[in-house]
Amino acid sequence: MKLVSLFAILSLAIFTTATMAETSASPSPPATLAWAAQHFKDTCSSCHGADGAHPLPLPGNPPPIIAGQYQDYLVQALTEYRDGQRQNIIMAPQAKDLTNAQVRVLAAYIANLPTPLHSLPRPEFGH
Ligand code: HEC
């Protein structure tokens, strides 16, 4: 009987600690367009440029222009950095805490920025 109570108390203590750990972690902010704009400004613009089109010319691994990139491409890139399929020591920590919803809305925000990206002439195809 005593052993059972001890077990019950221990389980309760473990459960309480686990629950407290869960609730003390700051909840993820909602994935709105306003959040994406602010997050881009606070976190991404230092390397990719305030407009996503004028990245810092970092030697070795320069950040690419991302403004106006296709949204599905951005979603894939960010998800792969986050989950480790695309390995990059700079981008992995930038993506690691993003939820799927945040990745999607951040990608929408970036895809919607005016872009200097363009296609080069393709003489092989006659244009
Ligand atoms: C400290 C600099 C830095 C910061 C901050 C940063 N990036 Fe990057 N980003 C890079 C570099 C460098 C690369 C190229 C990595 C590679 O070679 O895979 C990159 C690549 C990317 C790519 C892939 C582009 C492509 O053409 O494949 C995306 C998307 C991206 N960043 C989005 C973001 C977003 C969104 C944020 C903010 C949450 C952010 N980055 C913050 C430096 C940075």
Question: Which structural category fits the helices and strands?
Answer: mainly alpha
Work out the number of β strands.
0
- Main sheet attributes: strand count, strand direction, barrel closure: none
- In CATH, the homologous superfamily of the domain at 29-111 goes by the name Cytochrome c-like domain
Question: Which spans of ≥5 residues are poorly predicted at pLDDT below 50?
Answer: 6-24
Q: Give the SSE order as H and E letters.
A: HHHHH
* CATH topological fold name of the domain at 29-111: Cytochrome Bc1 Complex, Chain D, domain 2
The helix tally amounts to 5
Helix content: 40-55%
Quick one: CATH class of the domain at 29-111?
Mainly Alpha
The span between the termini is 85 Å
Specify the overall morphology.
Answer: globular
Can you describe this structure?
The structure is a single chain. With 127 residues, this protein is an all-alpha fold. It has a domain at 29-111: Cytochrome c-like domain (Cytochrome Bc1 Complex, Chain D, domain 2), CATH 1.10.760. The protein is 54% helix and 0% strand. The protein has helices at 2-24, 33-48, 71-83, 91-95, 100-111. Helix 2 (33-48) crosses helix 5. The protein is globular, with a radius of gyration of 22 Å. The model is unreliable at 6-24 (pLDDT under 50). Heme C (HEC) binds at residues 43-44, 46-48, 61, 63-64, 66, 74, 77-78, 88, 90-91, 94, 106.
